[in-house]
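To whoever is covering the structure queue this week,

Two jobs came back overnight. Logging them here so there's a record in the thread.

Job A:
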Amino acid sequence: MQHDNGDVESRRTAALALWRYSHDYLKAAQTLGETDVVACNESQVLYHLAAQGIEFALKSFLRARGVPAEDLSSRIGHALLEALQEALARGLATPPAEVVVAIRFIAPQHRDDQFRYLPATYGELPTLGPLLHAGTWLLGEIAAEVVADYFINFGQDSATASNDMLRRLRADLELTVSKVPRLQ
């Protein structure tokens, strides 16, 4: 069976695909954070993964709101604060203060050309929890809209199928959230 390259690309950049990418990056950061205790100066993979997860969550919402994939690449790029502002302008619920603080914390390191190292004292371990909380909050907030977008653009819109998909996404996300340290 041959696939049209345009169809493959539209599915790869669909809101649901971006939601899943986000969740996978956040799960990877969370899993590594549980098993690897490495000073921030020696490896910042965890923070890069979390930042990428936040980026994909914001872009998922924007795609569900009709922003073309080309605009996400050319206009937003990897700019987390610009993506957040665009999402808020397009109707994203106002995030809790700690979500905004986490995004502002990591945004300067997450750039178009590279991930910049977090400034830290040798041996310091900046907490990963707030970044994971920010990403999972975003995913939880946008899940219903992402599923609706999928069925409008790609699926046979049935309430049962839509509800089943939303239930599965929320269950997967809840498993991830259950492993994220609670913010104090």
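Job B:
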Amino acid sequence: MHVKCSAAVESRRRLLLRAAGAAPLLAWSLALAVESDPLPVPEGTPRERAVRVYNEGVKVLLERRHAEAQKLFEQALALDEKFAEAHNNLAFSVRMQGAQHFERALRHYNRAIELKPTLAQAYMYRGVLFTQMGDMAKARADHARLLGMDRDLATRLAQVIDKAAASPDDRSGIAGQYE
């Protein structure tokens, strides 16, 4: 379950956009960060601690401190390995640390989808990862799956795929900036 963006989260996104000069791909990335929003804490349940650690990871992720966020998502998963959103955000965090982490990111996107097949953001970001890895067929397959789940995310993934297809040797606008 996802919650709407809080005013504080939205304020941080706008601040990041201004700091980045509102680059189009960064704008998409921040608009798509909805899966990174904090989750409601299920108080009095075994999952409570995992969600609290996850939510702290989200705060750090929104500050673009990917290595630190990675550690928090790993802690959340140590508390609850079946936490799909934590797998998704861990994948995102490690992916943003460079191509040497792409295989690990892919494993976590796959696990997020295995645990929660309706987590549209995992298909979106895995599709971006496939694009970064040069596997356009798999990126298009994730796009096709998104069409039936979330048309806005599907449209955004299509734009990433189209940009990569138009300039396959220029990954700077995708790998370096798109989140």
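Note for Job B: The chain is about 70% helix and 0% strand.

Please reply-all if you pick these up so we don't duplicate work.
Q.
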